[in-house]
Amino acid sequence: MLATTAPAEPELRNNSVLARAATILDAFDGVSPVLSLSELSCRAGLPKSTVHRFAEQLLALGWLERTPGGYRVGMRLFEVGGLADRRNRMRDRAMPILHQLATTTKCAVHLGVLDRAEVVYLEKLPIKGLTLPTREGGRMPAHCTSLGKALLAFAGDEEVERVISLGLPKRTPATIVSPEALVSELAAVRKNGVAFDREEGCAGVSCVAAPIRGAGRAIGAVSVTGFSTVIDLRAASIHVRQAAASIWHELFGSRACAS
Q1: 211 in any annotated domain
Q2: Residues 6 or more apart from 132 whose CB is under 8 A from it?
Q3: Interior CA angle at 207 toward 142 and 251, to 5°?
Q4: Would you say the C-alpha torsion 231, 197, 104, 108 has a positive or negative sign?
């Protein structure tokens, strides 16, 4: 049942900003795609002044859109929903391939995607004895990981500039901290089809990654990781490229990964 009156503003002080924004978004349903300010206030159980303030912020973020009749859900929400679905589908299709890659290389295996200046890990297959600062759902700076560089190399100049503008924090003595060096490194990734991390994100550990892509941007990347004294990056690069191509094939059929 819809609320008939809005609570007074003082009662909201214990509610988080995020909770109130979520309450406004939850007011939308498939029956009434467009809601006026009064309808939003009534459904959300919030004062009009509060709803208007939050709605204006959600408009700026793309979560809502303005129409002659009021507000509707913005394209950003549809994009996020579709992105979550695509990521889950990619992870599910990739799992058998990731397990085979781990068996073949005897290395830790990661599957990741790019989110602004960071890598988000969708999957991690660890190996005994190797402790890594990664976990499923965790993040690492893109500029110092093989996954991140594989993704950035095919993400477009705007994304690379965003990463550079946020700074390139030094995690180890080998971390790339120069914008010029990063741009050069990404050019090599585009040329060779693989990205390397030689103790740039974690001392004593090296990685190689390949982008999961066709002819455009990378939708993800897969990597293998091992002790620097043990892993053969050149040999591993062959297997990781094959794995990336196989994941793309599982998702899209005959449109194999570009080299």
Answers
A1: yes
A2: 108, 124, 126, 202, 205, 225
A3: 75
A4: positive
User: Residues near 176 by Cβ (< 8 Å), separated by ≥ 6?
Assistant: 143, 144, 168, 182, 185, 200
What's the pLDDT band for 53 if we cut at 50, 70, 90?
very high
β-bridge partners, 223 = 110, 209
Give the separation between CA 225 and CA 203, rounded to whole angstroms. 12
Residues 188 and 232 both lie in one domain: yes
Q: Which domain holds residue 153?
A: 83-252
Which stretch of 13-27, 82-96, 141-155 has the lowest confidence by average pLDDT? 13-27
**What is the tens place of the pLDDT at every residue in 89-98?**
889 999 999 9
Which carries the bigger pLDDT value, residue 8 or residue 139?
139
